Amino acid sequence: MILGRCFGVLGHPIGHSKSPEMHGAAFEALGLPHRYLAFDVEPDGLASALAGAATLGFGGLNLTVPLKTHALGLLDALSPEAEAIGAVNTVCFTESGTLGRNTDGAGFIEALGSLLNTLPRRAVVLGGGGASRAVVHALLETGAHVHWVSRSASALPAWPGVTALEYEDLPAALGAADILVNGTTVGMQGGPASFPVPVDVAQLPAGAVVTDLVYPAPEAGLVVQARAHGLRAMDGLPMLWGQGVLALEHWLGASLDLATRTAMRGALGLDWKALLS
After folding, report:
1. Which residues are designated catalytic?
2. CATH number of 106-235
3. Least buried of 2, 35, 228, 275, by fewest C-beta within 10 Å?
């Protein structure tokens, strides 16, 4: 008999999260009696939440805004990718203690690779937070060059293959981009309503892709604007799926079969054929 365990996602705000539906569908497809819940936790409560989850025997945790960087000094160990990125989105409870991993970047590439015939070579990424760091790191590993745009460009990691830009320099970078990624919280519930400067998707080449890591796509946001200009675009749900698959594989110690991956996509309402069409 397999005992049910609790898994969850911590963040603030957290009411928008679709991770419980996605992982719930996975557990059902796998025939496992586990549960996945969302918990509203602010940064000053993260240490207590992690300790409580470990004491209660949680099977694993995800971290979302604004906790991904706050967790770095609170865990017993970090995986190489979490240490390099400087952010944690997946916590594993092991015999040696808590292990912080980052599946965001690999999940982004997993989703993008499933949707595109060719991965982008020239990228523009907005934002300097944990999600943006993971995406930039993953894009660099595929061989892409990244124009990384932030309010504090001088504070961004000096990774080979990155050109750090202030928002005022964004228009010049858009004209040659294969993909534009919004990794900020602009348009997210509780987040800012606009960017420091207007982001004009009409400046992108005709074949470019626009990805907004926020989900669902905000009304009049970058995804809506991009599609109105005839560009291919997607919100953050495909990346949520990709990182969720990898996180669950870490927790369970096994690869997920196609049926489980499909069930997870279905729980998110993802129509794989309609995306980027």
Report:
1. 68
2. 3.40.50.720
3. 2
* DSSP summary character for residue 188: S
User: How far is it, in rounded angstroms, from Cα 245 to Cα 22?
Assistant: 9
Of 71, 123, 124, residue with least CA distance to 98: 71
Would you report the helix, strand and coil content of the chain in percent, each value rounded to 5?
Answer: 40, 20, 45
Q: How far is Cα 77 from Cα 95, in angstroms, rounded to an integer? A: 12
Domain 6-102+238-267, classified CATH 3.40.50.10860, yes or no = yes
pLDDT in 10s for each residue of the chain, 277 residues: 678 999 999 999 999 899 999 999 999 999 999 999 999 999 999 999 999 999 999 999 999 989 999 999 999 999 999 999 999 999 999 999 999 999 999 999 988 988 888 999 999 999 998 899 999 999 999 999 999 999 999 999 999 999 999 999 999 999 999 999 999 988 776 678 788 999 999 999 999 999 999 888 788 889 999 999 999 999 999 999 999 999 999 999 999 999 999 999 999 999 877 777 6
Q: Are strands 6-11 and 232-234 parallel, antiparallel or unpaired?
A: unpaired
Alpha helices by DSSP H, 104-232? 104-115, 130-141, 170-174, 222-228
Contact in structure between 123 and 145 (CB atoms under 8 Å): yes
The amino acid at residue 227 is R
233 within 8 A of 276, measured Cβ to Cβ: yes
Domain boundaries, the chain: 6-102+238-267, 106-235
Q: What would you report as the CA-atom Rg of the chain, rounded to the nearest whole angstrom? A: 18
> In one letter, which amino acid is 255?
S
List, in sequence order, the alpha helices (H) in the chain. Answer: 19-30, 46-56, 80-85, 104-115, 130-141, 170-174, 222-228, 237-252, 258-267
CA–CA gap between residue 64 and residue 99 (Å, rounded)? 16
